[in-house]
Structures are given as C-alpha cells and as structure tokens.
Amino acid sequence: MADNKIIDGKLIAETMKKEIAAEVANMIDSGVGAPHLAAVLVGEDGASLTYVASKEKACRSVGMISSVYRLSEKSTEEDILKTIDFLNNDPEIDGYIVQLPLPKHINETKIIQSINHDKDVDGFTLYNIGLMQLGEPCYQPATPFGIIELLKRSNVEIAGKHIVVMGRSNIVGTPVSVMLSRKGIDATVTICHSKTQNLKELTRQADILIVAIGDPQFVKADMVKEGAVVIDVGIHRIKDNSEKGYHVVGDVDYDEVYKVASKITPVPGGVGPMTIVSLLHNTLMAAKNNKK
Fold first, then answer.
1. Quick one: three-class SS letters along 30-45?
2. Along the chain (292 residues), what's the average pLDDT of each consecutive run of 10 residues?
C-alpha cells in the first residue's frame, strides 16, 4: 500500500515522461522530427558523468534525440566557446546544457552567457532569468520547475501558503523563491541562508519547507511545524560498510522529520527524478518554438 505521506518523485516523473512521449510521438508522426537535446561535458567529474548518462537514458525513453559533446579537462575557454558557437548555430539542436561544474580555470559565467537563449533549456542565461523574474513565459530552471510540479501534482495547496526556502543558490534557492511568489502561484516566500538569525523560529512557521543548503541531515524534527510539507533537495553520499560502500541522504533528517511532516520527499527518489524530466519538458518546449 502506498504511503500517502511520501511524495514519490519517481512516480510523478514517470507520469510526466508519458505525457512528453505522447507529444514527441505526435511531432514525429506529423513530420517535424523528434526534439534534440545536447549536453556539453568538460572533464570527468563523477556526478556530472552520472547526470549526463541519466539524461541520455531519459531522452531515449521519450523518443528524443540526445547528443553529448565531450571535451577534455584541459580544454581552454576558447575550445568550449567554439563548441557553444557550433551548437548555437546548428538548426538540428533544439536545446542544450553545459554541464556544471566546469574546471576551475574556466569562467563559468562567460560560458553560460554565451548560450543562445532560445536553446537555454537549463534556464541559466540572463535573458531567461529576466523573463522568470517578470513572470513571463521562459525556460525555467529544471530543479525549481520540478519542485513546483511535485507540489502541484501531489495536490499540495501553494497559493497563500507561507513557504520557507533554505538556501539561495542561483540554481535552486533563488529561482524557486521567485517562481513561487509570482502571480498564478501566489505563495508568500521567506529565504533563509547561512547568515539568517533565528533560523529555527522561521522554519517552524513554514507551511511548506524547501531545503537546499548542501548540509547532510541538517534539518531536524524540532525545526519543522507539525503538518508541514517538506521538500528535500539535498543529496549526499555517506560512506558506510555496505556492499556499495555508501548510502544516500538529503539535507533533512528523514526518519525524524517524517514523524512531524504531513508530506515529505525521500532521498533518493524525490526531487532528483524531477530535475531530468523538467529538462525534457523544456526541450520539448524549445523544439515546438524552434520548429514553428
């Protein structure tokens, strides 16, 4: 029997994949061709390799085309910019991502801002960030979009609720705060970060608590209001003596917080699967725009 407390990101992502696959099939049947998502991967970062492999698998599962442009760790900024220029001008590519983090000698901002905003399916260019701030249609960052879809599809009421976001990164905390507060979603949002005073006092006011601080099992039960909805964005590998040699935890002490929350996302299997399916959603949107 399903546990109604658990927000199953895997299940919701699978439903969204089926919806996307149906639209992709229609595009192919009508002769416009399958959407094409590319990724630029610089170096051999383990987490990045895993993410890009998952993205390729997800693309195949919905009938999209996927390509990966692999560059060595020693690539220069000029090498990466040449690849980006090629992708910007290739009519076959509907959308692409530059996998982060980039090697330390590369200026990440310069690289990201070189992406053609019409193909920026990560929603990281200043153009798309500006549209998001204004509440205009745009490519929204994948993890924040995924979080909002998780809430909506779990029938969690958002309008008028007090949402506390822990973390202010440009990838999760800041954009999700903006998106939740726009007209049409209508939450009241508080952002907390490393300099916030009376942290526990604020988190205990949250109807919905979104945790993206990068600190394993930081949020304990006494930081959560009874009956709150808790979304855990964190993911950490903790070494142990198991066969795998590690287990995965989030930013929330799941076993403790589960007792007080009305709904909670597990780690893994909560927000993670939604990030990739949100990228597919943006690629479908880009393909529709590009093929008009």
1. CCCCCCEEEEEEECCC
2. 88 98 97 96 88 93 97 96 98 96 95 98 96 94 97 98 97 97 96 95 98 96 98 93 91 98 97 95 95 72
All CATH 3.40.50.10860 domain ranges of the chain, comma separated, are 31-123
pTM: 0.93
Query: Does 110 qualify as catalytic in the annotation?
Result: no
Q: Strand locations in the chain, DSSP E?
A: 36-42, 65-71, 95-98, 162-166, 188-192, 208-211, 229-232, 236-239, 246-249, 263-264
Asked if 112 and 124 count as a contact pair (C-beta separation under 8 A), the reply is yes
Q: Give catalytic status of residue 99 as yes or no.
A: yes
Catalytic residue list contains 17: no
32, 64 Cβ separation under 8 angstroms: no
Choose the catalytic residue: 55, 119, 225, 263. 55
Give the fold, CATH level 3, of 142-272: Rossmann fold (3.40.50)
**Domain 31-123: which CATH class?**
alpha beta
Task: Choose the catalytic residue: 8, 17, 94, 99.
Answer: 99
